[in-house]
Amino acid sequence: MKTKLIRALKVILSSKDNRLDIRSVRYLPRWAVLGIDTILLLCSIFLTAIVLGDMNIHHLNFMPAYQQVLLVLMVNVIVMLLFKTYAGLIRHSSFMDALKLVLSSISTFGLLTVINLITLAITGEKIFLNAALVVYSFFSFVFLFTFRLAIKQLFEYFRLFQVDKKCEKAVVVGIDENAISIAAALDLEHPQRFKIQGFLSRKPSNKRLMILGKPVVKVEGKISNEVQKLGADAVILSGDGLTANQKYTLVEDCLEHDIKVYNSPLVLDWSTETSVAKQVRNLQIEDLLEREPIVLHDREKSKQLFGKTVLVTGGAGSIGSEIVRQLIKYNPALVLILDQAETPLHELNLELQAKFKDFNFKCIICDVANRNRLMMLFKKFKIDVVYHAAAYKHVPLMEDNSPEAIITNIYGTKNLADLAILNKVSRFVMVSTDKAVNPSNVMGASKRAAEMYVQSRNFYKKNPKKATKFITTRFGNVLGSNGSVVPLFKSQIEKGGPVTITHPDIIRYFMTIPEACQLVLEAGAMGKGGEIYIFDMGEPVKIMDLATKMIKLAGYAPGEDIEIKITGLRPGEKLYEELIGDTSKALATHHDKILISKDLEQDFDAVCEKVNRIIQAALRYDATKVVKELKRLVPEYISKNSEFESLDDSVEIHASDSSQEPIKSNIISED
């Protein structure tokens, strides 16, 4: 009978015509709650009289019955006003609300007893029977508490009956305080996005353990099996309780079985301006590729940066701006943030002013190819450390605009390196790329040329005793950086596809922006001068797999909801990147995640002559000459899928060339 009644009620409530949306009733006014409580108190008085009457116990005749009733009500209402038992939302009643009711009942009993004793002392008679006060206090608490419990439970029933069909059944991974808080918050929110089915944990636990009335399941094998047993189709990762490897394995298993994966930050980090359900978001691909942060030489970094003047070129870019943020904790005296991009630099300026009131920095609009402007900055600010992140990096664009790649990537680096020597800068840290290894495009070759210039500069006779230590850092693709593949895929997925991939077999190394910048700062602390530091980036990632995972993490089916389209390799692009060249050796450091690429030491005069010829050709915007000279300096540079492939056989990798013009030293002089 009860089951049939519940089914009927569910049909009535879920009917579009008859639906009573409990969510439209926000809350009862306080005066209404106090009024209902007063009625319940009156009921408690009458029930007390009935119970005592059945026991042949009658009220005392010191004053009329109605006056006794009014006195009890008056005292109880005053106490409730003092404890504010009527405040708050009844449907969200908690332990604190129950405690208020207990204290209110005890206080009412105490006051009425005191009134009784005072009256007895003065007149020799009592107003109330002690038994009546005890029974009344009990009934009043039970009535008030039951009323709140009934409203809370009724609201829950209405909510369950009116659950939206789009509500996802999910399980929360973890049983720590954060996981429980997330589940509780999601259960209470309206409209409800998730219906929590239970909790998953790898920790030993009682098989009958329940949290928030939901089962806790111990995971011993694949997590997908337990999720399906609980009737869920999604998992919610709570906070940062899982390691990167555990998270990766879990996600792989879930995506293989079409189980959605969501991520929730720590409850303490939730935004007060965003609804609870919106805090739980689709897991991002960056969350799977993160590794444990490397922290090695904080003391050394502090020693080198505390109270110093630091220049960050390309400071408004993804890498440069993160370097600036990470520099803050080392308390430099001044950070010069240099970039030629006005709008990003302005936005960074506003961010730093708002978040870091005590941070001393200056934003400078300048092109690294502007040698005279750079010279003025070096002389004015007495720079101690340079982090050189300014570069053009997009391969197809630089293939079509090779002179610009040279002017920024090589000429700009040369300007900074030369001025660093002249102005006795202690450390010069250059940000390079894995595309500089066996380059197949102008961009990669230009970065390799810049590496060679910086390395040979370190050992040059005009840098006695390595007064300026030149250090290079080399890493692969940076997740989330401007123009990288991950933001592109995200944008394409949001638009409904297609997701474009240049080749089904293309692979790349990835690291996060904080990781990349950590390597740059670490290299600056570790470097003795002349090294190329590389980071152990783990296994390379197949871009096709990356796209597939991102589509699944967004809640779509690859090939069905979102198409993956192969567009063909772009000019200068190759299938895989390397971190160490064929003629280089990898040397270990005191940390197994950081290696040194040991290259053949180059003669600075020879490198400088060839670099100057490349720059001269670029300043004349002679793209063919630029690439020819670049191939002479970087013999391993073999063009791929590019208009410059024809130059590979025609260029003789020798210093002699009768067609070479004399270098205009006044334009690109060393000093």
SSE diagram, text form:
Blueprint: H1 2-14, H2 30-54, H3 65-83, H4 95-123, H5 130-161, E1 168-173, H6 177-188, E2 194-201, E3 210-211, E4 214-218, H7 223-229, E5 234-238, H8 244-256, E6 260-264, H9 276-279, E7 281-282, H10 285-289, H11 298-305, E8 309-313, H12 318-327, E9 334-339, H13 342-355, E10 361-365, H14 371-381, E11 385-388, H15 395-400, H16 402-422, E12 427-433, H17 442-458, E13 469-475, E14 477-479, H18 485-494, E15 499-501, E16 507-508, E17 510-512, H19 513-526, E18 532-535, E19 541-542, H20 543-553, E20 564-566, E21 585-588, E22 594-598, H21 604-619, H22 623-633, H23 647-650, H24 665-668
Parallel strand pairs: 1-2, 1-5, 2-4, 5-6, 8-9, 8-11, 9-10, 11-12, 12-13, 13-18, 14-17, 15-20
Antiparallel strand pairs: 3-4, 6-7, 16-19, 18-22, 21-22
Helix pairs in contact: 2-3, 2-5, 3-4, 4-5, 11-19, 12-19, 14-16, 16-17, 16-21, 17-21, 17-22, 21-22
Kindly describe this structure:
Helices cover about 45% and strands about 15% of the residues. It is of the alpha/beta class and about 675 residues long. The chain has three domains: about 20-160, no CATH class; about 170-285, NAD(P)-binding Rossmann-like Domain (Rossmann fold, 3-Layer(aba) Sandwich); about 300-475 and about 510-535 and about 580-650, NAD(P)-binding Rossmann-like Domain (Rossmann fold). Helix 2 (about 30-55) packs across helix 5 (about 130-160). The longest helix has about 30 residues, at about 130-160. The radius of gyration is 37 Å and the shape is elongated.
